[in-house]
């Protein structure tokens, strides 16, 4: 189920994704609009997942059936296993790791600390977040977002 805090997070990610899109493509307002929508939809799967696990794949599948252009980015957000990250997935993951559960902007370190507090530092969620942040920060595109 999508909680009030999750809605706030989704809206915060949408706004951050728009901001990052404009940094990567400053003269492309339509792209920024597309990235806003991607951020808004990225956690859709929580509505259909009792535990939250698998929410990415669930949301991606729903959006795929609907013909949404960036369904694959929703399905794969947060997974550092993806060697070839599209600009859209990169923007989404950076935005997701820069917005707290309640929707406020935060640093990636603060987001990681929150994930550790909520799930435990020995959890798979925490370990995946560590790998994802390391991957994002080592990507050359990350410098454009500063």
What report would you give on this structure?
The model has no long low-confidence stretch (mean pLDDT 95). This protein has helices at residues 4-24, 29-41, 55-65, 71-76, 87-96, 108-119, 124-138. It is globular, with a radius of gyration of 14 Å. The protein is built from seven helices and no strands. Helix 1 packs antiparallel against helix 2.
Question: How do you describe this structure in short?
Answer:
With 146 residues, this protein is an all-alpha fold. Helices cover 60% and strands 0% of the residues.
Could you outline the blueprint of secondary structure elements for this entry?
Elements: H1 4-24, H2 29-41, H3 55-65, H4 71-76, H5 87-96, H6 108-119, H7 124-138
Distance between the termini: 33 Å
Number of strands: 0
Query: How confident is the prediction overall: mean pLDDT?
Result: 95
Radius of gyration: 14 Å
Strand-residue fraction? under 5%
Tertiary shape: globular
- Note the run of SSEs as H and E: HHHHHHH
Structural class: mainly alpha
Keywords summarizing the entry:
146 residues; mainly alpha; 60% helix
């Amino acid at each position: 189920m999508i909680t009030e805090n999750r809605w706030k997070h989704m809206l915060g990610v949408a706004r951050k994704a728009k901001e990052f899109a404009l940094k990567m493509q400053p003269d492309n307002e339509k792209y920024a609009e597309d990235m806003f929508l991607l951020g808004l939809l990225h956690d859709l799967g929580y509505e259909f997942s009792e535990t939250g696990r698998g929410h990415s794949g669930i949301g991606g599948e729903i959006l795929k059936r609907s013909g949404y252009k960036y369904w694959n980015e929703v399905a794969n957000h947060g997974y550092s296993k993806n060697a070839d990250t599209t600009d859209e997935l990169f923007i989404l993951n950076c935005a997701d790791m820069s917005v707290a559960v309640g929707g406020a902007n935060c640093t990636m370190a603060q987001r990681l600390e929150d994930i550790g507090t909520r799930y435990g530092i020995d959890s798979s969620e925490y370990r995946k977040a560590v790998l994802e942040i390391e991957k994002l920060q080592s990507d050359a595109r990350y410098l454009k977002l500063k």
